[in-house]
Amino acid sequence: MLVVEIHVPLTSPPGLPAGAYPYPWIDEVEDVLAELEENGVAEVFDEGVEYGDFYVFFVTGAAEAELLGVAARVAALPGVPAGALAVVSDDPDGEIGHGRRLELPPAAS
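Above: the chain's sequence. Below: its structure in token form.
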């Protein structure tokens, strides 16, 4: 089974008010992935997790090109920090970050 991990740097957007949740983009990404899953574009493989300096989302259920398109869409969402990358793996039980790494387009500004 092909799994694409979407690694997004754990970076807070500038100008957040004091005491605000530092990563509001995580909820937005989860909403977009849930919508894509409802529309049959891709499946969310597992819950997102913090991994080092990144937050990782997992998608599967489609061909590699479609899953990389989902990853690029996530990276381009407003508020998502620049520096996102995708890791492509065909071992769903493997360790996070083990697979072919691809840079994703920079976040929209």
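DSSP finds two helices and five strands in the chain.
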